[in-house]
Design goal:
Elements (H helix, E strand, L loop, with lengths): L18 E6 L4 E5 L3 E2 L2 E2 L3 E4 L9 H4 L8 E7 L2 E6 L12 E5 L18 E4 L7 E6 L5 E2 L2 E2 L6 E4 L5 E5 L3
Antiparallel strand pairs: 1-2, 2-5, 3-4, 6-7, 7-8, 9-10, 10-14, 11-12, 13-14
């Protein structure tokens, strides 16, 4: 329980491998990780779960972006679920390292920064601001949004963790 800190012993998505990140909008819990089974259904490394039970029921039954490799982090912004990781396809089309997924369908949007290496962490800038920030270990990739990661397309700032920087799409 978010208010009391009491553990809900009935909430158990029973993932068959590690969960690396969760985010919720109050009606759905989005999980990322190394799992291929979670909430009682097959899900490739990213899933939507019911907040009361941890099961993939209701909207969660049909929401299945099916990442082809590990998803390390998820973040929510309005009607978008941002996913970061090692996948090269997620939500249908090719998306290298990072994708913006429709919160209802799980389909990838046209947004495609096309990172040339793994993205380990992502967080939304705030409600409905549209573009996320991405934390990555220094020198993890050289290009983002088709340009040098240290160039005009990516604004670099120090991230909260040692040895990481925040990238945003803002010029």
């Amino acid at each position: 329980d978010a208010l009391t800190g009491t553990v809900n012993s009935t909430w158990n998505p029973n993932a068959n491998n590690r969960v690396t990140s969760i985010a919720t909008n109050g009606t759905t819990v989005y999980a990322a990780g190394l799992f291929t089974l979670i909430g009682g259904d097959s899900r490739s490394r990213i899933a939507a779960l019911e907040p009361a039970t941890g099961l993939a029921t209701g909207l969660a039954t049909t929401w299945n972006p099916a990442a082809n490799s590990t998803v390390y982090s998820v973040a929510l912004d309005g009607a978008t679920v941002y996913a970061a990781g090692a996948s090269t396809t997620i939500g249908g089309p090719a998306r290298s390292g990072i994708a913006a997924l429709d919160i209802t369908t799980g389909s990838a949007s046209a947004w495609n920064p096309n990172a040339n290496n793994v993205v380990y962490n992502i967080s939304a800038l705030g409600p409905n601001k549209g573009l996320p920030t991405m934390c990555r270990p220094d020198q993890a990739y050289a290009t983002l949004f088709g340009s040098a990661a240290d160039g005009v397309a990516a604004q670099m700032k120090k991230c909260g963790q040692r040895g990481q920087r925040v990238l945003s799409a803002a010029a």
